[in-house]
Amino acid sequence: MQYLPLFVKLTDKPVLIVGGGSVALRKAGTLLSAGARLTVVAPDFAPEFLQWQQQGKAELLAGFFTPQLLDGKLLVIAATDNDEVNAAVYQAATERNMLVNTVDDQPKCGFIFPSIIDRSPILIAISSFGTAPVLARRLREKLETLLPQHLGPLAELVGRFRDQVKAKIQGFAARRQFWERVFDSDVVRQLEANRPQQAEQQLAEMLQSEQPRQGEVWIVGAGPGDPELLTLKALQLMQQADVVVYDYLVLPQIMELVRRDAERICVGKKAGAHSMPQQDTNALLVQLAKQGKKVCRLKGGDPFIFGRGGEEIEALLPEQIPFQVVPGITAAAGCAAYAGIPLTHRDYAQSVQFVTGHCRKAGDEPDWHSMSRPHQTLAIYMGILKAADIQQQLLTYGRDPATPLAIIENGTRREQRVITGTLSELAQLVEQQQVVSPALLVIGEVVALQSQLHWFGQRPAAAVFAQPLTRLA
């Protein structure tokens, strides 16, 4: 982050602008809208500057810049068409540790002007750090169409009730939950219809009838890795949660999308490294919900496909804790798609089995006979540690040794790696390529299509390849 975004109160603060042309005029208009007390120095001035002087909004000094003009100023803007003058302003301001903006010269900027979306008192600023101002402006234009005009009146209404809410509702989390209910209520729709009195009355009624609310748990699938594969509902609940209980498989890039002030609790869970037993995780969810918190239980993949979401819900039921489940893209679907492998294809496979190579009850073996039938796809989760056993059993029960297979390591992620071969080579490939978790095994005739259908990253030149993340511009 090259610049720290700040909102500075400029009401009646002294600001110097060097330059009197059209560029200086644009900056001056922005500063005046923020209440700054302007001094402008230039040999000549655009007509609007003269009008502002007559209205008492700006002091104009006809002449040239001297360092003494910086005395007592909070900010300075160099906006002339003379590079030498702009450089002199920058040098003099820097020597005084003043914040300076040199128009169209990003290296000589101690601060920059963002593109602004004004829904006062809601203000949104967008910046490219001076590298792509036209792009920043395009983003602002896009957001302008998405943000309704009633945001300003809504913020003003909320502001008037803030002290009342604080007095009636104890605790930050409880107050935040109240405001979230307000923003989902008819209060907003009344303002949309330009009925501010009705909106204020309804907000007052909501506050008067407010009662302590019970906590709840959201069992949310985070998908296989790529943050862009999150569902919209998953993202919404991540932003509303008081606390997020997550696994190792949830990438830091996904956790960055969680609300900033939410508590984060990692319960581990990756092959061979369970930092918290499942029963302790179940008890933790119950404990947090009983404290009145909104708990987002964030899991890699899908909660109901080898995610143990059902076990966690079974722990909530006796305590009568409300819950909901948000499906996620499971690893088999996401990783296979990003590797260019259709799990079903009418010419190759008419069925698919999702199988786990881990967490089986003692003595409860998979149905190897069923798994060994041709023209079906096996998607095996957590199978790397048992690769040799999986290979042996499938061959023993009659699966063709030449059956194509793929090992997808870190599927859908920037560091995704796909290793292809045949069933007879499975254990050897895992050892030779030093495959690490998370990794998915895909076994079946459909894997033969991988070299044709691969799309994620550069087309591979060999059977073993790494794929950089690509995005459409």
TrEMBL record:
Binding site for NAD(+): 22-23, 43-44
EC number(s) recorded for this UniProt protein: 2.1.1.107, 1.3.1.76, 4.99.1.4
Pathway, per record: Porphyrin-containing compound metabolism; siroheme biosynthesis; siroheme from sirohydrochlorin: step 1/1; Porphyrin-containing compound metabolism; siroheme biosynthesis; precorrin-2 from uroporphyrinogen III: step 1/1; Porphyrin-containing compound metabolism; siroheme biosynthesis; sirohydrochlorin from precorrin-2: step 1/1; Cofactor biosynthesis; adenosylcobalamin biosynthesis; precorrin-2 from uroporphyrinogen III: step 1/1
Active site per UniProt: 247, 269
Keyword Kinase: no
CDD domains: SUMT
Residues the entry annotates as binding S-adenosyl-L-methionine: 224, 300-302, 305, 330-331, 382, 411
Catalytic reaction(s) noted: siroheme + 2 H(+) = sirohydrochlorin + Fe(2+); uroporphyrinogen III + 2 S-adenosyl-L-methionine = precorrin-2 + 2 S-adenosyl-L-homocysteine + H(+); precorrin-2 + NAD(+) = sirohydrochlorin + NADH + 2 H(+)
Modified residues (Phosphoserine): 128
Membership in a protein family: Belongs to the precorrin methyltransferase family. In the C-terminal section; belongs to the precorrin methyltransferase family.
Protein name: Siroheme synthase
Species of origin: Alishewanella agri BL06
Taxonomic lineage from the root: Bacteria, Pseudomonadati, Pseudomonadota, Gammaproteobacteria, Alteromonadales
